[in-house]
Design goal:
single chain; 363 residues; alpha+beta; Beta-lactamase; six-stranded antiparallel β-sheet; three-stranded antiparallel β-sheet; 11 helices; 33% helix; 20% strand; globular; Beta-lactamase family protein; signal; AmpC-like; Beta-lactam/transpept-like
Length: 363
């Protein structure tokens, strides 16, 4: 009888251990699951690739790099490389506008005509319309003549003059239509109101304040430590990115940064370091059209859901680079991905990683 009881207890113990200790053959760590999502998208180890990071409650729980930072020199990417972030720049522009509002230097209800008196219909378009992509102004990136200025040094006024006389797409506040022109104008307003260049304003009041040492206004001339070079993919293979003058995308898409710095940015937003709580809230609330319909965009962020969780998102695309960032405020999860080939989109990938991290936290 004693032998029987011992055997039964031993079998029960094995059962408990089998449940408590995951079998390494069948169980995958979170990192392995994340990389199982990434690797099918970045298959070429000798081509350009990307870097990805997941942070929870401000702490990095995953980061890795795939592919080359420079194909010619056969240099591997690491997670501390600097990338063009494209339209993620709009986050910095929106925060800058609200910083100036907090200082009493402007108001989001101000009319565009207050700052650009000769802008057609400027007495109907507000800063709010520009921030929410509801102005109806023609997006300069959709104009055929963009190729004529793409490599020219443009002042903000020259950029505004480039598109201001184009026919509007709709009346202000009538609908949401993603628009780079609006954010170029916002950058121009930042310069007019602050007395600083947009580049200096971002540097002095954001990057320096929160120690974003790897971030700045883009340049192809200046030496940038640990810069990931950008590529396109053609039928014949990879080619170096098309050269543009970054004064053209300006405040709509000319920032470069790193994973580490973007985490500092997110933490600063969470801690109301740059804006007070009231103005920070304005960044992330959905706004309405003239007819009362709600749009899923705040000031510089798309407002969506992943599963049932609220999500603040924005991506970017500029010659040679793509970017995507997703923040889940209720769970304090931040996921960012940068790629140095515009043939590799991190958008769906970053969303899927965020979904995976969410689901893993509920198991």
């Amino acid at each position: 009888m004693k032998k029987y009881h011992f055997k039964s207890a031993f079998i029960a113990l094995l059962s408990v251990l089998a449940t408590a200790i995951p079998n390494p053959i069948f169980a995958q760590s979170l990192s392995e699951k994340i990389e199982a999502l990434i690797q099918p998208e970045i298959k070429d180890k000798n081509g350009p690739g990307g870097v990805f990071m997941v942070a929870k409650k401000g702490e990095i729980i995953y980061q890795n790099a795939f592919g080359k930072a420079n194909i010619e020199l056969e240099v591997n990417l690491t997670t501390d490389y600097v990338f063009q972030v494209g339209s993620m720049t709009k986050q910095f522009t929106a925060v800058s506008i609200l910083m100036l509002q907090e200082q009493g230097k402007l108001n989001t209800n101000d009319l565009l005509s207050k700052y650009v008196p000769d802008f057609p219909a400027g007495d109907k378009i507000t800063i709010h319309h520009l921030l929410t992509h509801t102005s109806g102004i023609k997006d300069f990136t959709k104009m055929k003549s963009i190729k004529d200025i793409a490599q020219k040094e443009m002042t903000p006024k020259m950029m505004v003059d480039f598109f201001k006389n184009e026919p509007v797409d709709f009346s202000p506040g009538q609908k949401f239509d993603y628009n780079n022109s609006g954010y170029v104008i916002l950058g121009y307003i930042i310069e007019l109101v602050s007395g600083e260049t947009y580049e200096d304003f971002i540097e002095n009041h954001i990057f320096n304040k929160i120690d974003m040492t790897q971030s700045g206004y883009a340049t192809d001339r200046q030496i940038i430590s640990r810069r990931a070079y950008g590529y396109h993919k053609k039928e014949s293979g990879y080619v170096n990115k098309t050269v543009i003058n970054y004064s053209v995308p300006f405040a709509s898409g000319a920032i470069m940064s790193s994973l580490k710095d973007m985490l500092k940015w997110q933490i600063a937003l969470n801690n109301n370091t740059l804006l007070n709580k009231e103005n920070t809230k304005k960044l992330f609330q959905p706004y309405s059209l003239n007819n009362g319909e709600t749009i899923n965009y705040g000031y510089g962020w798309h407002l969506r859901k992943i599963n049932d969780s609220m999500s603040r998102e924005h991506g970017g695309s500029i010659f040679g680079y793509k970017s995507m960032g997703v923040y889940l405020p209720n769970e304090d999860i931040y996921v960012v991905g940068f790629t140095n080939c515009d043939c590799i989109s991190p958008t769906q990938l970053v969303q899927n990683i965020a979904k995976l991290v969410l689901e893993s936290g509920k198991q």
